[in-house]
Structure formats: C-alpha cells, structure tokens
Fold:
Amino acid sequence: YSDDQRRASRLMDIALGFDDSWLINDLTTERALDERMDLGNGMVLTHHSQVVEHFLLCMALCQDVTPEGDQGFLIYSGLSPDEVCLVDAARQMGYTFWRRTDEHLTLQIRHGSKTKEFDLLRLIKFSNSRKRSSVIVRDPDTQIITLYSKGADDVMLPQCPAHLSHFVPRIEAAVDTYSKLGLRTLCLGCKTIEPSYWEEWRRKAQVAGTILEPKEKDRQLNDLYSEIELGCMLLSATGTEDKIQNGVPECIERLRMANISVWMITGDKLDTAVEIAKSCRLLDMQEMRVDIVDAPNKHQTKAILMPLRPADDGKYAIVISGRSLEQVFRDPEMTEHFFHHTVSCAAAVVCRATKSQKAEVVHLIKSRMPEVITLSIGDGANDVPMLKEAHVGIGVFGKEGNQAVQNSDYAIAQFRFLERLLFVHGRWSYVRLAKLISYFFYKNITYTVPQFLFGFYSAYSAKSFYDDWYIATYNFLFTSLPVLAMGMFEQDVNPDMGEEIRREYPKFYSVGQRNLLFNRHCILLSWTQGFAHSFVCFFIAMYGLGDIVHYRGHTEDFWYHSLLTYMSCVCVVTVNVLIRMRHWSWIFILTIVASILVYFFWMMVYDLIDFNTAYRHATALVQLPSFWLSFLLILAVTSMSHFGFTSYMRWFHPTVVDVYQELQHKERREQAKKEGDEEPPTMLGNMAPFNRGLSEVTVDNPNDTTHTSSHTHPSHPSHRMRPPPPFNGDRCRTDMDGMGGPEDDLNEGNVRVKPLSELPVGGEGIGAISPGPVWPRIGVGAESSRGRERDDGGLGLT
Structure:
C-alpha cells in the first residue's frame, strides 16, 4: 500500500484491507487443524482461526512503534519500516494497535468491537547479533504469559521444538518463495511461559542489567534472551516488499560506466539479495558468471571459495552470505583469496551481513588498497558503522530513521541523487581544488622570484624589492577574490547542457580517478609558467623604463622598477585566471574587475602617505609613456604566451573535457541558429570522433580525393595528433549526431560519424587501437564516395 492508499483505506474504515480469501476464510471459520499444536502451559491450538489470531497478535504486539492520531486517522511511526508495515497489516485485518504505555499494550480487535489490554512484561529489541525481537505479555483475562517473537529464518527455524519440526519444511518453502520474489522475509512464532519460570528469569535479567561492564552485561543479557526464546512454535512467514526507488538501476549503471566498483552489502536473505541485485542491474545472470558462497562451517566455505578463479573476460560476480564471510575473516588464507577474487569482479553481493561485517568489508578494501577511495551509502542504523569506516559516508533520508544521515558526511534524499553528487559536484570539487592549488603555486612564484632576481642588482644586500605594505596586501587584498571565485564557481563542463553530454558525463569522472589535473606534471607546469612570467615582469620593468628624470629633477631609483614589477605581477596573475577559468560568471568577472580597481586605488592613495618608502613615486610613474608601454608589453607577452600554449594543447593534444566542450559549443550554435542569431565561431571543429565508442569517420569532399589512415591511441608515443588538412581552404564541419542533413551538403568538408553496426568487418581504413582507462575502443577510417584509394598523407584527427 502506498501512503495515499493507506490513508484512504483508513478513512473509508473498511473491514478487511487485504484481498486474501484464504487468510480471511481461516480467520472467520472454524476449520480444524490436521494436527493440534501444543504451546505448553495448557494452551493447545486446534483450529486454523486460533493460529491466525496468534499470528496477528504477534504482528500487533511484537513491535516498537508509536501510534499517533485518533481513532479515525491513526498513523504509526517507528525506526523500522518493516515493523510499521506489519503493525499496519494487522490493523487492516482487524487487530489495531491503539495505545502504548510503560506497562500496557492496548489493541482494538475487529475494528473497535472489542478492546483488549495486555500487560507488557518485557520488550526485547532487535539486535544484529540475535537477528530477532520479542515481547513478553500477559493476558489479563486468562493470566497466561505469552512470548511473541519474529526474526530471520536462519535464527527462528532452529528454535522450533522437536515435536513441531514437521511444520518447518512448510515455513521454509514459504520463505524461499517470498525470497525469490525479492521480498524481505521474517518468521513469526510464539510460546507460553510458566509464571514460576518467568519470575526466576526476571530476577536473573534484573541482576544482569545492573552489571557495569558493557560487554559482560550484553553477553549475559543475550544469553538470557536466547534462553527464554528457545522453543518458540513457528506460526507463519511474512514477505515485505522493499520497493526500489526511481532511478536506482540507471544510477548504478552509470557508476559502473565511470569505472566505479559497486558492492551491495545487505542483511536480507540470499535469494532476496540476488533478486534485488538483479532488479538494480547489478547482476546479470545471462551475461555474468555468478559464484555463490554460502556454507555453515569453515571447511565447506573453504571448499567453495578457494577453487574460484576470475573469468577471462572479467564478467563474473560473487555472492557471499554473512555466515561464510565470518569464516573467511577468521582465516588469513581465505581472506587473501577472497580479496583478490572480489576486487577484480564486476559485482559483489554480501547478504545476511551484520553491521559489524559491513564495516569489516569496507575496512578490507581500505587496508589493502590505500590508493582507493571508498564510499558507503545507507539509510538505516545498521549502516552507521559502514558509513564511519569508509572515506566518504553518505546517508539517505528514509523510513528507517535519521541515524544514517546524522552519522554521514553528506545526506541525500534519494539514491539516484548520488549520480549528480559524484559526477557533477564531486568532480567539480576536484577540478576546483586542483586548479586552485596549481594557481596558488603559480601566482606566488610569479610574485617572489623578482625579489630573488633583485639580489643580483643589489649586491646581495638583503634589501627588499617591494614595500612592506605591498608585501602584506598581495595575497590578502589584491589576488584573493579571483582565487575565491575559482574555488567556488569553476565549471569546466555544464552538466545541464544537452542530453548527450549528460549521458556521457560518467566518462569525465576518470579525470579525477587518474588524477589528470593535480599531478607532478601539472605542478611542474605551473612552476615553469610562474618562473617564466616572473622573469618577463622583472626584466621588462628593469630595462623597459629607460632613463627617468623626475619632474622635480631627481633621477630614477629602484622603486620605479619595483612599482612597475609589482603592478605587472598583480595584473598578470589576475588576467591569468581568466584564461584558466572555463566558466565565466558575472560574479567571477566582478572579482577580476574589483581586484584591479582596488589595487590602483590603493597604489594612488598609499603613494600620498608620508611614511611610504616610495613616497610620490607612483604619481610620477603613471605620467611616463614608457611605463604604460612596458606594462602593456608585459601583459601581452605573458597573456599571449599562455593563450598560445593553451590553444596548442587544445588543438593538437585535446582532452576528453575539450571534446565535450565542443559538443556544448555545437548545441549553443544550433540554438543560435534557431533564434536567428549569428553562428559563433568554432574552435574545435574536428572533435566529434572521440564522442563515439567504435566509429567510422567518413569525409566527403567534392573537390578532393579521400585519404585513409589508421590511428593509435592518443596516449601512444608514436601518435602525433595534427589538424585535418584543409579542403580548398575550407575547414571541416562536424555532424555530431551522425545523421547529416541538407544544411551539411555544402562545398566544404563534412565529417559524419557512423555507428559500429554500419562498419564493414575487416574493411580497409579501420584502424584498431588499444583501449585506455579513459578513451573507449575506437576505430578511425576514411572512405570516399568516389573510391577507396589510400594516400600516405592520411587524415589527421584531433
């Protein structure tokens, strides 16, 4: 039942909410049992209606939910959504849990026709070690003490008395049927307790509850709980549907596209876990080899696990139960084999896992693969140890309380939002931090190296090249805002721009996985650029001003060169941010303008203060034409060199980000055409082939023959990427969707991308390449409608 359906059924006050004629018939008729069920203490069940009644009483009483509202509109709330579901199911069958106090539990039977109050003697809550919960109540009419219990089948079935063991196969069959349907199963049972035994047990529980040592206290209480729960007669099995949220299969599929290993760790039964994994597209029984490890002891577990070997194609998965996992962690040899077998598998499912085992699985990966970042996501209290153990813990708001959210690093409303959290915000965080740190190295090297160079001109006198106040305000006042904007607003690719780009966005995640933006090469490149720009600022300022005579007749001193060098450094590093940033927002432009204006304002105001060591030098300097010519020359040299290097790398050594930026530019160009605007110029008109997995590039030109060439992977040393040769001086246009159209049949070259299904098998011009971690397997070739002639000139594609 959905929330709306449940509320509607309550308001309608229907007699029975379940369309189960068999159960209703057993509840309302006096059909005799084939064999009597002796609960002990004088209680014997002889009819089906009695069994169904205790079954409904178990669902209504063995719980820890709180009723809210009045009789006409009653809502249950609790930490476990399964308990809420069972209590609500009992209500639909006429056994309404109405009120809870410290000493009593009140039920309304037959929808208010009868009210019955049970004495609450003990509530034994669910724990991961026991995997069951129980309640002990006393019927005020008969004074019979009854224990109702519900829990997992692997702990409830062994509790059944020997004289009632013939009921176990029927319960097991029902549990297996529910599990194969993907339902979460529970077994329900009850037993009667003699008053004398209850008093003795209660005294032992009181003594155990006063122990100060937590571990000893829990051990003794668990032993007492197991003792009193022993011998429960099985009443029935229940199956609860735990619906998968919208977008979960698609999210998991894209996570795996991004080369992220996905493991499912759950406390559900093995068959239930497998069905959920199949519905989430984590397991594909037709495409994968699925190895199941589920054994009751160490020897059987070892016999199943040790012979397992990875599949040659990597399409295999492992499903292991909690009891087998416990044996694996106890044996170092099996632990090592389990680790090496699972880290290379396509999927892993751990079922019947306790909360401690969930944390142990995460710790296994963390301890043996320190270079790997682990992420745990869960919505229940049982997931808290796992969330804390992983590098990143994400809590999902759900019906199992807020413990997971309160103990997580991030919180999301639904599982499908994990995709945007990782691929968009997580990736942006990496891009921003990588650029910010590299830029910090660059701007501080650009600023400090002139101080070192000045030592050669000052005979190493330790004289400072900059004024003290200029030194103090460089990082604090003049260059802080652009850095802040870069760290907050940088977006190399807009995720909302185009369905095709959003579909291929998981491939971008490999930029962070391979650490392409923050490595030794990137840091060294920033250092080199900083040193080069500092040399340009210092030497042009030193020799570009020429001989200066102050308007009062004073000759030049080093403060003129210092002020020009300092102003050049501030403006150069500020303009450099414009080239580094891929996303220009109005806030970012405002920080650039504000930083430059603040500097010029400070320079003119500070120049008029008496204690300034370079008093009135700035006023004289800005009046010199050589100052402005030198300043503009410095900006031109530094900016054009950086822009030229960036353009060269973008043209001849493009990254995957550059490719998708061109796709975004194509969409903007199409939108501009629809709106009647002028088509903006394209910078990378030949990047389309890298947007396809295996593709053929067909170049049609009416005025030139077509060349065919094979290309290796872009990272291969022998590969030298170059722009395509011009066709009659015209540049190639791209048809990214591979369809072509009337507007594409122009006199200039036309590049079209065809899917793999249209490729000739073994045909000429198809170049095979070795797959890389980022680039998919690509075949590149050229074919002309006029023929298939080869030419050593080839077709260069970037």
Summary: Residues 37 and 251 are 50 Å apart (CA to CA). The longest strand covers residues 114-124. The chain has a mean pLDDT of 77. The chain is about 45% helix and 15% strand.
